[in-house]
Each structure stands twice: as structure tokens, then as C-alpha cells.
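User: I'm designing a mutation panel for Cell division protein FtsX and want to avoid disrupting the core. Could you give me a predicted structure to guide residue selection? Please restate the sequence first so the numbering is unambiguous.

Assistant: Good idea. Sequence first, for numbering, then the predicted C-alpha cells:
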Amino acid sequence: MRKEENILIKKMYKSLTRVIKSGWVNFYRNKWLSLTSVLIMVLTLLSINSLLFVNLVSNKILSELQNKIDISVYFKSDSSETDIFKVRDDLIALSEVKNVEYISKDQALENFKERHKDNPVLTESLDELGDNPLTASLNIKANTADNFETKAFESIAAFLEQDSYKLLVEKVNYNQNKEAINKLSLISQVAKRAGLILTIVLAVIASLVAFNTIRLTMYSWRDEITVMRLVGATNWYIRGPFLVEGILYGVFAALVAVIVLTILLLLFSSKISAIMPIDLSAYFKAHFLSILSIQFLIGVILGGFSSFFAIRRYLKV
């Protein structure tokens, strides 16, 4: 029994070795066709990388813009700090609220003077008034997570319109910020949907390119395939070399794409980082293994599956 198992293992090993060798021979023999296929897949992978880069940068920009948009609650001048802190605690308890910052009347005045320090007329007018005309306020950051939605802001604004707060609250500036919030929400949704659609389109194009490339290779081998089928060769025996060839396209394309991506980052990362809110070079180094794995995975899937479906044209399976 053990002898039979050893014979079976040797046959499987020999068959696998033959398939890999034949696939490599196909890849090398059709050098120009292989080169064309690899280059097309490289362009596809670089296009997907570009799309991921745009998505990464847009998410970073949106995240920074989200942090700059808040709801400010201005209290009446006779509102005590105790009452204001009670409102703050009620807000913090809401799931829609990320954090709440209290700004006293004195702090509000200092902030105002700092913003308008280049306007002496305005600062002199404040000094002439004597009393502080500004009121205490709360700056509220909404908990929008990764999906920027206006619902959180609307929920917070509605919460502050309760009767129990009307005697304390002078104004809620949500309506003033509503247009900016809605625009940011729309940009976020459009960017994510457009990125998803473009990724799918690029994946389909890459699959079709690899599919037709493998078919061209098999067309040049159509007589050999017919002979192998006539003598009773198994589907694996026929399909194997073309699967290996397709996988080799993906592997080499992924390798070239990573090299090109590395060179581009070395040349332009500092310039991009100067105008974009992200250090691409640091991000690439921190996620190098993940990026490399994704490139090889996409390349192998595109090449392997495309060749698998392309060979079915010549096999009745």
C-alpha cells in the first residue's frame, strides 16, 4: 500500500513539474505576446493603485474637513456655568456626539481678539465697550465614523431644541453650517461610489485583456490541444500549462507594478506630501507587505482565472 502511495505521489509530482515547466516554456516561447500581456496587466494594476491613492487622499482630506465642521451652541448671558455644564454632560451622553468643548466668555473674547489682532479699529471698539459682549458656548464634534452623514448633526440640533434648553440657549449655528455639512456629505458619498464603480470597471477590463491574451496563446496551440484531446489527455493535463502561464503574467505584472510604484514614490512622494495631507512614502513603507501581497493576489487572480475560463473554449467541460 505504501509503495502504491509513493508511486502516486511521484506521478503527481511529475505531472505538476511538467505543467509548471510547460507553462514557463509557453511564457518564454511567446516572448512578445507575454511581454504585451504583462505590460497591459501592469498598466491595469497601476491604474488600480492610482485609484486607491486617490481614495486614500480623498478620505484623508474628508477626515480633516470633518474635524473642522462642528455645531456651536451659544448661551444667553445670564446662563450659569453649572447649567451650561449640565447641557454639556447631556450632550456627551449622546451616541452622535464625539466630544464637546466648553468655551467661557473670557476665552471667547481672547479668541476673538486673536483672530482680529490685525484690525485695530475692532479691538479699540471692544476696549471702549468695557464689558465683554460675547457669551459662553459649546463646540460639538459629531461622531460620523467613516461614513460622513448629516443625520448625526441633525440629531444633535434637534436635541438642543427641546423646551428644557430654550431658556439657556441663545443660538445654535447648525443652520449656518448646514450647507457646508451637506456638501461634504455629498462629496464623501460620491467619492466612495465613484471609487467602487471605477475599481469594478478596471477589474473587468483587466480580466477581458488577460482572457483574450490567453486565448491568443491557445489559438497558436490549437492543433496541439486537438491532438492531446484525441489521445485522451485529461483536462488538467491540457489546462495546467495555460493556467501556469496566466499566473506567470500576473506574478510578473505585480512585480513590475511594485517596482514602478516604488520608483514613482521615491521621485514624487516629497512633492505630493507638500501639497497633500499625507506622507505617501511613510504609508508605503508601513504597509509594504500588504501592498505587495495585494498586487500579487490581484495579478494571480486576473491571470489564473482568465486563463481558466479562456481554455474552456477548447474543452467540453
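For picking mutation sites, this is relevant: The longest helix spans residues 174-220. Residues 18-64+191-311 form one domain.
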